[in-house]
Specification:
mainly alpha, globular
Length: 547
């Protein structure tokens, strides 16, 4: 009886808060100074009203049966797997479209201006692929791994659901903001001040769920995958807060003024930007690698000692590498040289991690012939190794003078993002889907094989075309005649790149096609399935290590 009274009182508190949020959002929507702010305020109002009605309809009702304590909290992970696939398709589709926009400017349709031009769709693509596709993959896999390696349910009850839905709201606010012109124009950090505040709240809740689960673990040992996940969560929080310190021009508008300016702003931005790659796209995904590759290979990690060295070397070195983005700028030479040196040294721990992952297959290499999921994991590690060699090489000042601002950089970024992050995410989705929905395996293993080859060919076409056109572009920009004058105009380089832009677009089509095959395979696997409830390790089996 006391429990029901407390629950009902909490429902009344929720109703008051949701009602206040709806009223304030309605006022903000009416008085907002710009379109992006008005649309976002209206969206918040609509969500608050919907939640108000839902809570009101269920107030004073008896509670349903509680979720059993003896099983893992996998509901939020199932939602995360589906969200990962959905946002992946959205990001790949927009990316393929803007690739063809660069080849055929007429695709910047007059009737869609300004919402469908390249300038607004490009940040939509990067954020959808990195933060929506990659972010949902990281949240889902990290919450799956931390439970299995700790032998306990997620800490915080429904807090994990707040993290999931709060993160989806962040994605929607950021994406609509880009289309409506609401952006602070910072690479990988475009959302405006109020979206940044919301993301900070969601991210701290994510950190609390992850840390709380580790604190209450039944397994004495903290598996190395959790070290990588935790470093990714903490460092991204620090990077996000510092790089987005700004002062709103008005509480009723989206525009803000950055606290940093000039070269200090550039230094802070690329400390953030490169470490978004280093910790969001590398450390977090290495957490995936250290759990799912051994599980799929059915072998222990090749060298646990090497994984610890890999971890500490990576997180110490990566944080210093950002200044290599600012060679030949107003940044002091000593700072960009520091970034270059740390980038070169970073090659060693990166390859140590790649070798550790590949050597985990020792004694199981035959799986590459029979297991397309294992093939995806191995290919992702290959691209990780290639990208972490190419990146340090491109940070060298002499190489950077040729490569920077050219499509070579675009090719490098996409070989890493599609080859390393994309392929390991696809493999993790194929690993998780049958387990979360109680199937023995995916509906069609041959479809996974098709996906592998479509994605691989797409990446090769994309990266190779950008390497060729990027080096050509850099050489054309520096070509001079016997009088010392530049030979080529900028328009000449654009014209020369046209064939490679077509190849790049076709590579995007193939990669997108592979992802669509995956979504079909997921649908057929999930259709008619009953979500599986995986049991926690029994107390009597406490001496047996968690998965």
């Amino acid at each position: 009886m006391l429990f029901l009274t407390a629950r009902n009182n909490m429902d009344y508190v929720k109703l008051v808060l949701l009602g206040a949020i709806a009223v304030l959002a309605a006022i903000a929507s009416s008085w907002g100074h710009d379109l992006a702010y008005q649309v976002h305020a209206f969206l918040i109002m609509a969500i608050a009203v919907g939640m108000f009605i839902y809570v009101l309809r269920h107030t004073d009702e008896p509670t349903g049966p509680a979720e059993p304590d003896g099983i893992y909290a996998d509901g939020v992970i199932r939602a995360g797997v589906i969200a990962t696939a959905f946002w992946g398709i959205a990001g790949f589709l927009v990316g393929t479209f803007i690739a063809f926009q660069l080849a055929f400017p007429a695709l910047n349709f007059d009737w869609g201006q300004p919402f469908t031009n390249f300038g607004r769709l490009r940040p939509l693509h990067t954020s959808a692929v990195i933060f929506a596709f990659g972010g949902n993959a990281l949240i889902a896999t990290s919450l799956y791994v931390v439970q299995r390696t700790s032998g306990v349910r997620l800490w915080g009850g429904k807090t994990a659901w707040f993290v999931f839905w709060g993160y989806q709201l962040f994605i929607v606010l950021a994406a609509t903001g880009y289309l409506l012109g609401g952006t602070q124009s910072k690479e990988y950090a475009e959302p405006e001040w109020y979206i940044d505040i919301w993301l900070t709240i969601v991210w701290l809740a994510y950190l609390a769920v992850f840390l709380g689960t580790i604190f209450k673990r039944k397994e004495k040992h903290i598996y190395v995958a959790n070290w990588f996940f935790l470093s990714f969560i903490i460092t991204v929080a620090m990077l996000h807060v510092v790089n987005n310190i700004s002062i709103p021009v008005s509480l009723l508008g989206s525009k803000s003024v950055q606290v940093f300016s000039g070269v200090q702003d550039a230094m802070t931005q690329w400390w953030y930007g490169h470490n978004a790659v280093g910790f969001f796209l590398t450390a977090g995904f290495l957490g995936m690698m250290y759990y799912f590759v051994p599980k799929q290979a059915e072998r222990p990690v090749y060298s646990y000692k090497l994984s610890i060295i890999h971890f500490w070397a990576l997180i110490f070195l990566y944080i210093w590498a950002g200044p290599h983005h600012l060679h030949y700028t107003a940044l002091p030479d000593w700072a960009s040289t520091l970034g270059m040196v740390f980038s070169i040294v970073l090659w060693m721990p990166s390859w140590g991690g790649m070798i550790n992952g590949l050597m985990t297959l020792q004694g199981a290499w035959d799986k590459l012939r029979t297991d397309p999921i294992m093939r995806m994991f191995v290919l992702s590690l290959g691209f990780y190794g290639m990208s972490t060699f190419e990146g340090p090489m491109m940070s060298i000042r002499a190489v950077n003078s040729l490569s920077h601002y050219t499509d070579w950089t675009i090719g490098h970024v996409h070989s890493g993002a599609l080859g390393w992050n994309g392929m390991i995410t696809f493999a993790c989705i194929y690993f998780l889907t049958p387990k979360l929905w109680g199937r023995k395996e995916m509906y069609s293993m041959s479809a996974i094989n098709w996906h592998f080859w479509l994605a691989t060919l797409g990446i090769v076409l994309y990266a190779a075309s950008m390497w060729v056109t990027g080096i050509m572009e850099g050489l054309m920009w520096r070509e001079v005649d016997d009088q010392g004058f530049l030979v080529n105009s900028f328009a000449d380089t654009v014209s020369a790149k046209f064939p490679m832009y077509i190849v790049r677009g076709l590579g995007g089509v193939l990669f997108l096609s592979g992802a669509l095959v995956m979504v079909w395979n997921m649908f057929m696997t999930i259709r008619g399935a009953t979500p599986a409830n995986a049991a926690l390790p029994r107390a009597s089996a406490a001496a047996t290590p968690a998965e």
